[in-house]
Specification:
heterodimer, B: about 210 residues, alpha/beta, Rossmann fold, disordered C terminus, Rab-GAP TBC domain-containing protein (chain A), GTPase activator activity (chain A), transmembrane (chain A), transmembrane helix (chain A)
Chain lengths: ~750, ~210
């Protein structure tokens, strides 16, 4: 009995495939992604790739779909099945797995169906930290756009059972080191049925039954002869690209081919002036892409900088990719972040409290009104400090709340104090500050010491060049408005120790670049605070980088005493970054190295090839907590998050991994040498999205914690069974789960040693 | 495309904090000056192509932190250096006196094969500053340092102003010339950039790994 024309034989079914037509979870369309052979089929190119919503199927058909989905041995038999059927002999009389043909395109119900002949390529996105659900985007050869199909593995019975098997054998990650997911079977099924060509240049792209012209289009010189002019773009998108805004899903096609053309061409050049790059690009890439790329200020800057071609390419690729993701993000909103975490912890809910799970997305910042609501009328905290920290960890603070909240986060005020107690603390800190300040300001002997004079020069140099783009630190001469309060009047010290200017800063010089002359009152106070800290922590003194740490704190308080103590509190945990032998920095970079190996072994291997596993490019980011890499406001938010020690006092290392993993494809794809990696990482400055990276860092942390837990349980089990082999978790890594601040103090300064 | 060879020359710039290392490099490579370059933390480099005796070279100039203790980490970039620039500030005597420790620091970290005749160059920056601010009897002190000090810093010396772009170009051209000599001494093959570019970008589809890789 043969299959009728109106019918089709299901070869492969993936249940719990979803469309996400809007950002809201409730609009998701559940259905089946299937491969089926119509009765009229002559070759594998006729096989239909279909998405059929559950709601469109009758009860009987649902049963057929589900039974095919659950057939675990299906994959092995697929090609056999195909051969048998071609002979049309073996299964006569058996009308197996036959359903009515899926509808071709029903707009109201989201169903679609397309013969493989008309599929140009598939873009596969594995579930990853960026994408909780794996998905596939089907690009037809025509110009129509098909919706993205998401694999909800947590609901798919077959995938769950397979994941379970993999977990039991303690191999949750497949051969390529990534988690097993539903899309893998789909790809395997497809490749059993038809030729699939995975692109080396963009490993997430699979060409479906590519004809030679397609391959030439993606091949460098040699494969099919040099590419001809004007070919780019046309073969991939089926028609000349229109001068429309960069938009999905076309961007993926254009990107795949355009990137390729530029890559091969630029790679053969060693001269890299802007105009030259432009010429190359002009020649080989669709105009609309060229325009978009070259108008980016970042790209212009890049090509101006005579950079090596690969650094340029890596940036470009990262940028285009990000643009594509930015647009797609419409389909993945906060809901998805919740779902991600829920699913990640699916079988291990006991690891996280429900509250932790629901809190894992970014919230709106805590403003002053909300902050005040945390306290009763005596000024006693009505929540636990952890609740407050949780709130700040996930939302940060609004500018107006910072002045109130930072003293708590930085240990100036105790969490269990009340308003009256804080007033007393404030008073005693005021007088204590004056005591420390007097040690240099009121001590002529001190000020003649060689060491002290050195430190003063260093401080003044750094203060002068600190954050001068920030309003309060701008030069008075370039700042408009009255000079009213900007006299160089120093802090009025409580017991008549009032100085109009400090004795060692002569006024007479009119040179506007004189180190000793600090016109801006705020810069002047930075200097006073740092000179006083030099007395407060005599062993450490002043080290470059401290100005970076003080500057945002001062900007929030704009008060010398409060800024000093908040800074001193911050320095408690940061002192280890500055100690003379640099052991604190070395230690952190070592732990980061271990964490990277544990979490992203592939990326680590690539960095090893680049001789970059010392992770030196993280030095600046770790030393001053990403102060130089992010925008001013972002730095404030980031530090608040770190200050909470909500998951770990070493959360800045997880954040480093978030940055590194977000650049993974650019690094792996384009960077091959120590200097290239360093340059690329140094110039991420200002291009990173804080919000995304924070979510990413949290997911990395949760995954890390879960991995440690899995391994621990595995070890316990083995121990109970008397097996000797255990997977060891290095104590360095285990320490990352601790919330207690790590404090390392500087040793006493040996006689005659300078502050260098 | 011509298969022209380009030599990559690696130069390390050292000196006390605030002597103007970043400014010198920015002036030379990007023809810019600002008073407000932040204190360098970690390390970074700029690249500039030059023609020296009809040979095109790519000068990779490494900017470093002046804070001594930060040198103890991240010495990776010292490796394979072809020339080292020691900087001081003509208004800061201490920075002048520290030149020889910077030289020692470099030799220890870089582990060069010919410490005796490795090319160093000395740059005294900020000559635009008013005469009265300069180190008193600078020339005499310089002579002392270059001739008499233990080991002697008998190296080419340039006085520059990164601010007013005085002598910066000349100084770095000499840097390039000296680096080129050193590079040729060490064998020219290892830094052939042209080959590097071809090898480094993987532009071949993996034939043996076609189809689905799941």
């Amino acid at each position: 009995m043969s299959v009728l024309h109106s019918e089709t034989q299901l070869l492969y079914v993936k249940s719990k495939a979803y469309l996400h037509p809007t950002s809201s979870k409730k609009d998701n369309v559940a259905g089946f992604l299937s491969l089926s052979r119509p009765g009229s089929s002559k070759s594998s190119k006729d096989i239909l790739l279909s998405f059929t919503p559950e709601s469109m199927l009758s009860g009987a058909e649902l049963d057929v779909y589900n039974s095919v989905d659950l057939r675990a041995d299906l994959l092995q038999n697929l090609s056999g099945l195909l051969l048998n059927d071609k002979a049309k002999s073996g299964n006569q009389g058996k009308k197996k797995d036959v359903v009515s043909k899926p509808p071709v395109l029903v707009t109201t119900s989201y169903a679609f169906s397309i013969p493989l002949l008309y599929v140009y390529l598939l873009l596969i996105r594995k579930p990853s930290l960026g994408w909780w659900f794996g998905s596939v985007i089907i690009h037809p050869k025509s110009e129509e756009n098909l919706p993205v199909v998401f694999f909800h593995d947590d609901e798919s019975p077959l995938t769950i059972s397979r994941q379970k098997v993999k977990n039991q054998s303690f191999d949750p990650f497949g051969e390529d080191g990534t988690m097993y997911w539903g899309g893998q079977d789909f790809l395997s099924a497809l490749s059993a049925l038809i030729t699939m060509e995975r692109l080396n240049v963009e490993p997430s792209v699979y060409l479906v039954d590519p004809i030679s012209a397609d391959l030439v289009n993606f091949l460098p010189y040699g494969g099919g002869g040099p590419p001809k002019k004007g070919r780019a773009g046309s073969a991939s998108s089926g028609s000349a690209p229109k001068a429309e805004p960069f938009k999905l899903p076309d961007v993926n096609k254009m990107f795949a081919s355009a990137k390729w053309k530029v890559l091969e061409t630029v790679a053969t050049f060693t001269l890299r002036t802007k105009s030259l790059v432009k010429d190359i690009v002009d020649e080989h890439v669709p105009q609309s892409v060229v325009r978009l790329i070259l108008t980016k200020p970042e790209v212009q800057k890049v090509s101006n900088d005579f950079e090596s071609a690969r650094v340029y390419l890596a940036k470009w690729a990262a940028q285009v990719k990000e643009e594509a993701e930015q647009l797609e993000r419409k389909f993945m909103m906060e809901d998805a972040v919740y779902a991600r975490i829920n699913e990640q912890l699916g079988n291990d809910k006991q690891l996280l409290t429900p509250q932790e799970i629901s809190n894992a997305s970014r919230r709106k910042p805590v403003n002053l009104v909300e902050w005040k609501g945390f306290f009763d009328d005596q000024g006693h905290l009505v929540m636990t400090p952890d609740e407050v920290k949780n709130r700040i960890f996930h939302g940060g603070l609004a500018q107006d709340a910072r002045k109130e909240a930072w003293p708590f986060l930085l240990g100036v005020y105790a969490w269990n104090s009340n308003t009256a107690e804080r007033e007393i603390t404030k008073k005693s800190l005021q007088s204590s500050y004056c005591d420390f300040k007097r040690r240099w300001a009121d001590n002529d002997e001190r000020r003649t010491e060689e060491f002290w004079k050195d430190q003063k020069v260093r401080i003044e140099k750094d203060v002068h060049r600190n954050d001068r783009n920030i309003d309060i630190y701008k030069s008075d001469k370039t700042k408009k408005g009255s000079k009213g309060d900007t006299s160089r009047k120093s802090l009025v010290l409580s017991n008549n120790l009032e100085r109009v200017s400090s004795p060692e800063t002569p006024d007479e010089d009119d040179d506007n670049w004189n180190l000793a002359r600090i016109d801006n009152v705020h810069l002047f106070r930075l200097r006073e605070i740092l000179l006083t800290y030099n007395e407060y922590n005599v062993n450490l003194g002043y080290i470059q980088g401290m100005t970076d740490l003080l500057s945002p704190i001062y900007a929030v308080f704009q008060d010398e005493v409060m800024s000093f103590w908040a800074f001193a509190g911050f320095m408690e945990r940061m002192e280890r970054n500055f100690v003379r032998d640099q052991s604190g920095m070395k230690r952190q970079m070592q732990v980061l190295n271990e964490l990277l190996q544990f979490m992203f072994p592939d990326l680590y291997k690539h960095l090893a090839k680049c001789e970059s596993t010392d992770l030196f490019f993280f030095f600046r980011m770790l030393l001053v907590w990403y102060k130089r890499e992010f925008k001013w406001d972002d730095v404030n938010t980031l530090w608040e998050v770190f200050w909470t020690d909500y998951y770990s006092s070493q959360y800045h290392l997880f954040f480093a991994l978030a940055i590194l993993s977000s650049q993974e494809s650019a690094i792996k794809g384009y960077l091959n040498r120590f200097d290239e990696v360093l340059k690329y990482m140094n110039e991420l400055l200002g291009t990173m999205k804080l919000h995304d990276l924070l979510v990413r860092a949290e997911l990395i942390f949760l995954r890390f914690r879960r991995m440690v837990d899995l391994i621990d349980r595995e070890n316990t089990l083995k121990r109970e069974q008397g097996e000797l082999y255990e997977v060891q978790i290095h104590p360095d890594l285990r320490e990352l789960l601790l919330r207690k601040m790590i404090i390392q103090k500087e040793e006493e300064r040996p006689e005659g040693v300078g502050g260098g | 495309m011509s298969a022209r060879k380009k030599t990559l020359l690696k130069v390390i710039v050292l000196g006390d904090l605030g002597v103007g290392k970043t400014s010198l490099m920015q002036q030379f490579v990007n023809k810019k000056f600002s008073h407000q370059y932040k204190a360098t933390i970690g390390a970074d480099f700029l690249t500039k192509d030059l023609t020296i005796d009809n040979k095109t070279v790519s000068l990779q100039i490494w900017d470093t932190a002046g804070q001594e203790r930060f040198q103890s980490l991240g010495v990776a970039f010292y490796r394979g250096a072809d020339c080292c620039v020691l900087c001081y500030d003509v208004t800061n005597e201490k920075s002048l006196n520290n030149l020889s420790s910077w030289k020692d620091e470099f030799l220890v970290q870089s582990n060069v094969s010919n410490p005796q005749d490795f090319p160093f160059i000395i740059i005294g920056n900020k000559i635009d500053v008013d005469e009265s601010k300069k180190i008193p009897s600078l020339q005499k002190k310089l002579l002392n340092i270059t001739n008499n000090q233990l080991g002697g810093l008998n190296y080419p010396l340039f006085e520059t102003s990164a601010k007013d772009s005085i002598n910066v170009e000349t100084a770095f051209e000499n840097v390039a010339r000296m680096a080129l000599q050193q590079e040729e001494l060490n064998g020219a093959s290892r830094n052939d950039m042209n080959d590097d570019y071809h090898d480094a970008i993987n532009i071949h589809l993996e034939n043996d790994n076609s189809g689905c890789a799941c």
